[in-house]
Design goal:
The protein is mainly alpha-helical. Helix 1 packs across helix 5 and helix 14 packs antiparallel against helix 15. The chain starts with a helix and ends with a helix. A 3-stranded parallel β-sheet has the order 5-1-6. The protein has a 3-stranded parallel β-sheet with strand order 2-4-3. The longest helix is centred in the N-terminal third of the chain and has 40 residues. The protein has 17 helices and 6 strands.
């Protein structure tokens, strides 16, 4: 096993060291060239993707940092005893990529993806290799909790296969949300969307219990066209900034600075979402030609990072409403010790809500509020592991007390973190954990199988509508 890990390090480490944007620029360019796209067009698409990733990361950082300062002020004013600091996703990525096992898990999942493509079990080629850290941290946490590398690898493969299958299931919905043709190759294997099955359970309950609420729903983009500026993403950012600033007891100058920062970021998100579409356009044409000539019409999808859908206004409208709800839940939730700071803008939550509800904003907010405790409990559970690992790899944030605990509020894959905890502890042979882990894995798989069946029904409706 150590030989495989060493091989993964040699193959991938030089690329990973470049960072997400250069890495994905190279990957997308090379893949486009493989599909016989002209070099200049392939490189243009790769550079646009790198620029888009850089832009989206910079804006999320600005937004999270601005709101984190306000939330910290609010906690200091109220004296809340939430002693785990939410440091956001970036330190967690650094921590995870600091482990040689991450490159090993990447190599394993590349092999799994290729095998699934050859066996025609998927149409998705996952190129979002930087975000393998979302899956790797599940394996690392399982090892931390007592699993050996073989068991951790089996858990990673199990979840990873379902992620790839999910990318195929979601593809028609992405086309619908983006108003894109079937030839559009964009989908995603992002861990965000592994919350889809649980969200769909609540969505079906919503259908049975609260269907009447849908008549009060509104499309954030359509609202903007109806009432102009006051329903725009910019205005929503202003409202949220003022609300959070007032909670934090900020001065009028600070409140307006926060409001305009939020407004600007929400507008820029929409613009950058369009860059992802432009980035994959050359590859899309290349795949279409290749599929027509070589694969007898079989379609191939490309698994990207989630922000290609970031232009949908509902993502940001729901995230803005869920931000204060998350804070209130963190204050009263039994067992939670995590203060939402870096994850106050719920990007680990809202993309999956968008896909399952297809942009029904009231459903997104209600279901999002119901599922947020899972993220808070998961972040609390992970804190000792994240803190210890951060100190080992030198990624513990400067300025925090040495005995402080760190984690992340809206870390992708909260359910999978609980699975890792149960599987890791079950590996020690304790019968209670063995039973809980077995039940949890079976339930996880059965819910996914049910969700897959429901998504196939939805996709059949999409196909029938296009055939008319």
């Amino acid at each position: 096993m150590s030989t495989v890990i060493d091989l993964a390090n040699k193959v991938f480490q030089p690329l990973i060291n470049l960072g997400a944007a250069p890495l994905m620029t190279i990957v997308l360019t090379l893949i486009a060239l493989l599909f016989k796209v002209k070099f200049t067009k392939a490189l243009e698409g790769g550079l646009k993707l790198g620029i888009a990733l850089t832009g989206i990361g910079a804006i999320i950082n600005i937004l999270s940092t601005s709101f984190a300062d306000a939330m910290q002020s609010f906690v200091e004013r109220t004296g809340l005893s939430l002693n785990i600091t939410d440091v956001g996703w970036a330190p967690l990525a650094t921590i995870t990529w600091g482990s040689p096992y991450t490159l090993y898990f990447l190599l394993i999942m590349v092999i799994v993806n290729i095998v699934m493509l050859v066996l025609n079990r998927t149409n998705t080629l996952d190129v979002d290799i930087f975000d393998i850290w979302h899956l790797s941290i599940v394996g690392l946490f399982a090892i931390f909790c007592g699993a050996n590398l073989f068991i951790a690898t089996a858990l990673v493969i199990f979840i990873g296969v379902l992620k790839i299958i999910n990318s195929d299931l979601m593809k028609p919905t992405f086309n619908d949300l983006l108003n894109a043709p079937d030839a559009n190759p964009m989908t995603t294997t992002h861990m965000n969307y592994m919350m889809n099955p649980i969200i769909m359970v609540f969505d079906k309950i919503f259908d049975k219990v609260f269907p009447w609420l849908d008549k009060y729903d509104f499309d954030a983009a359509k609202l903007n066209s109806k009432i102009g500026f006051w329903g725009s993403k910019f205005a929503i950012g202003i409202y949220l900034g003022i609300f959070v600033g007032m909670l934090a007891g900020q001065t009028p100058t600070q409140i307006f600075a926060l409001a305009f920062t939020a407004a600007t970021c929400l507008e820029l998100f929409s613009m950058i979402g369009a860059w992802f579409i432009a980035a994959v356009e050359p590859l899309s044409r290349g795949i279409t030609d290749f599929a027509s000539n070589k694969l007898k019409g079989r379609t191939l999808n490309i698994g990207l990072d989630w922000p290609f859908i970031a232009g949908r206004a509902e993502i940001w409208a729901a995230a803005n409403v869920l931000a204060p709800i998350m804070l209130l839940e963190a204050m009263i939730l039994p067992g939670n010790k995590l203060l939402p700071l870096g994850g106050i803008i719920a990007m680990g939550v809202t993309p999956a809500l968008l896909v399952v509800t297809r942009g029904k904003l009231i459903r997104m907010i209600v279901i999002g509020a119901i599922e947020l405790p899972v993220f808070l409990w998961s972040g609390t559970l992970m804190a000792p592991f994240i803190t210890e690992t951060a100190k080992k790899v030198g990624a513990f944030p400067k300025g925090l007390n040495a005995d402080a605990l760190i984690s992340h509020t809206t870390m992708e894959g909260p359910v999978e973190k609980f699975l890792a905890y149960l599987v890791g502890n079950a590996s020690q042979g304790e019968i209670t954990f063995v039973l809980y882990a077995a039940l949890a894995l079976v339930a996880y798989l059965l819910i996914f199988v049910w969700y897959a069946r429901e998504m196939k029904k939805r996709n059949a409706i999409y196909a029938a509508e296009k055939a008319k």
